[in-house]
Amino acid sequence: MKNTKQKNILQLIGFIAAILALNVIASTYFTRIDFTKEKRYTLSETTKGILQNLQNEVVVNVYLDGELPANFKRLKKSTQEMLDEFKAYSNGKLYFNFIDPLASTNVEKQNAMIDSLAKSGLQPTNLMMKTDKGNTQKIIIPGALVYYEGRQLPLNLLQNSSRAGAGTQEEAINASIENIEYSLASSIKKLSEKNKALIGFTIGHNELDDQHLSDIGRSLAESYQLRRVDLNAVKLADLFKFKTLVIAKPTQPFTEPEKYKLDQFLVNGGRLFLLLDQVNAETDSIRTRGMSLATPISLNLDDQLFRYGARVNYDLVEDVYCARIPVILGEGNQAQQELLPWVYYPMLISTSNHPIVRNLDAVRCQFINSIDTIGNKNIHKTVLLTTSPYTRKAKVPAMLSLASVQEEPNPKDYTGGPQAAAILMEGKFNSVFNNRTIEGADLSTPFKAENKESKIILVADGDVIKNDVSALDKQIFPLGFDKYTNQTFANKVFVENSIDYLSDDSGLLTLRTKEIKIRLLDKEKIRAQRLQWQLINTIVPVGLVLLFAIGHSYYRRRKYAV
Q1: For labelling, which of 14, 284, 398, 502 has a CA lying 20 to 30 Å from the CA of 233?
Q2: DSSP labels for 444-505?
Q3: CA 422 – CA 166 distance, rounded (Å)
Q4: With contact defined as beta carbons under 8 Å apart, do 496 and 219 qualify?
């Protein structure tokens, strides 16, 4: 008896020692196990590196709280779970709070909070909610503010909210959940990164001015150093310091020495973001005169782009899926302004799963050209944005008349199919100037015919990156904002994603390809089989309990029967 007691005590001591040892090991070596099929709670190595290298504390205030519809509760829960993962890998330097922006019962305080968050970059969203009293409107703010070293950055959690054909609200919420890790990691990286890559915007060819690049400039300045670059004056060695060059809507030709610098910049690993118009057409001149002649623009880049693997055509793409412009109809007292579809303002979409454009809303354009790709075995090409299938192409020169806007476009007349308007080219580019002598070329740096892999994003519309400026008070409108319909298109997101893909070699943008499948119940089956499953869920559990009770009683009688 004594030996048994001692044995039990030793076993208890051993068990307690094992538990203590397990706790010591667990506190020293950190690990987490993700049992989900799509590994939704497994952070990428890039994200872990960002969190583990934090020098100071990060605070994330999430304003998606309070009384929420079921779908947004799911978004809130997913955000909280992701923040828990971030906190676990941040070495105690990440904190987060969930705040109900409408917690106050005072309407004035609620409005003040909404206005304050809107000024910080978080826009409210109106939702219709079903209650016992019927349908009521509910204002929510699906966003967060990220703070680091006295700076803040707005983070909008709701993605894909306005894309044409985005489907149900469940799909929109699911797209937002898929994007949470990228959105959070990108915001923290923007605030915490010390060594920012250098991005150059070229000048000297009548490119877009600072006013019309103001909005995208403010956004990019959070992640990069921005400079203006005069290709005619800059030394080639200094040009190599830039990670990416942006050429935004030039209207004057490039000289051969300038083209040589672009070529050598690319061959040496630099990246190019080209937003080009091959046709001169402006809506303002059409409104003033009622019509205008669209004419080709010679940028002297055709031969270079052709060798790289693409051609921007001298045409105008007309698309049934287009934006609307204000037009005065009638005369005198009967005149009134209406918004009518303008086929020369296509709204570009993407069916690609590439991280630049995955789950991207429509991108608004003005007078776009089509792009053809040229065979080049060393260069991989990805079509990023296309028009709708209901298109046709107009050759230039072409007379554009505002009178045509009054005719509703008939899809039967637009059978051109989808036209590529933005492409990505990646690989080892061969120099266009191999075995060529260029007078005035900068030869201070040794010539290279082929070297490092590089990337080009080519967009056949310079207005994609252009924000509107009010003619009255010079107010800067957000990039992609349509002042006539108050709708915001995805121009800014597309440009930011493009710059990130070209300039950030960490691979962070690839997180946008993360996919979480929606596993929703079939509503039709629910209706058809409702009674069947109600009976199964009520009768079967009771039946199992009764069977267990009868079996247990029978077993006891047999066991203890005399």
Answers
A1: 502
A2: SS---SS-S-EEEEEES-GGGGPPPB-TTT-PBPPTTEETTTTEE-THHHHHHHHHHHHH-T
A3: 21
A4: yes
